[in-house]
Design goal:
- This protein is α/β, with parallel strands linked by helices and 219 residues long.
- The chain has a single domain, classed as 3-Layer(aba) Sandwich (Rossmann fold), CATH 3.40.50.
- It is 37% helix and 16% strand.
- The protein has eight helices and six strands, in the order H-H-E-H-H-E-H-H-E-H-E-E-H-E.
- Strands 1-6-5-2 form a four-stranded parallel beta sheet. The protein has a two-stranded antiparallel sheet with strand order 3-4.
- Helix 8 links the parallel strand 5 and strand 6.
- Helix 4 crosses helix 6.
């Protein structure tokens, strides 16, 4: 009997979507999101300045976590421009780099939802976009599992406040699933812990966390 979540995979649409993304990237070149040169979405010079994410132990409740880059320089600029200036072309590229680090034997991919304030202001949830790009890349189902209670965004809060994490709950009874949670940036690990608590309360027996970028542990 097939696994109830894995059976939701759609292999052909995933491959078609990836092919379309690659074709559009060739036909419609975009400026570098970090420096605006005509070699986007992230030019060779900016890619040369990227550093791997600093190492850090997974926070409590999280079985493993990965991050592609240190949150600095071109990556920081790329994420800021994607989130606040609607320059989203780079998100697919970032998701591909992150997908290379993630195990593909999870049951479902989800994301840390943005606050209502942020989502209304931007018109889109960037963590969701990254999660969906990653899911297509890894041929994994992507589902909206987490709901965020009303509250302030994590950005701009103190480190102590961020460590408490957003208030999250899972709307579904999951069963013993392995869940991969995606976010754009990890700082204190508060969002990862909050997501893990909510998912484990819903029945998940394994929670991994993947972010495009991560700050140094002391930040």
């Amino acid at each position: 009997m097939s696994h109830p979540v894995r059976s939701l995979r759609r292999v052909v649409p995933a491959l078609v979507s990836k092919a379309v993304d690659d074709l559009l990237g060739l036909l419609l070149p975009t400026p570098c999101v970090a420096c605006q040169s005509l070699d986007g979405p992230l030019c060779g010079r900016c890619r040369a300045d990227l550093r791997p994410a600093p190492s850090a132990a997974p926070p409590p409740g999280v079985d493993w976590w990965v991050a592609a880059f240190a949150y600095e320089g071109p990556i920081r600029e790329a994420i800021v421009r994607a989130k606040y200036r609607d320059q989203r072309a780079v998100l697919s590229w970032l998701a591909r780099r992150l997908a290379d680090l993630c195990p593909h034997d999870v049951d479902v991919v989800t994301w840390v939802p943005a606050s209502t304030i942020r989502r209304r202001a931007r018109g889109v949830d960037h963590a969701e976009l990254i999660a969906r790009h990653l899911g297509r890349r890894c041929d994994l189902p992507v589902r909206r599992l987490l709901v965020r209670s009303a509250g302030l965004p994590q950005t701009g809060r103190t480190a102590r406040e961020r460590r408490a994490g957003p208030k999250l709950r899972c709307e579904y009874a999951l069963g013993p699933y392995s869940v991969l949670v995606v976010d754009d940036v990890a700082t204190t690990g508060g969002s990862a812990m909050a997501a893990a608590r909510a998912l484990r309360c819903a029945g998940a027996d394994s929670v991994g966390f993947a972010s495009v970028a991560r700050t140094a542990p002391h930040e």
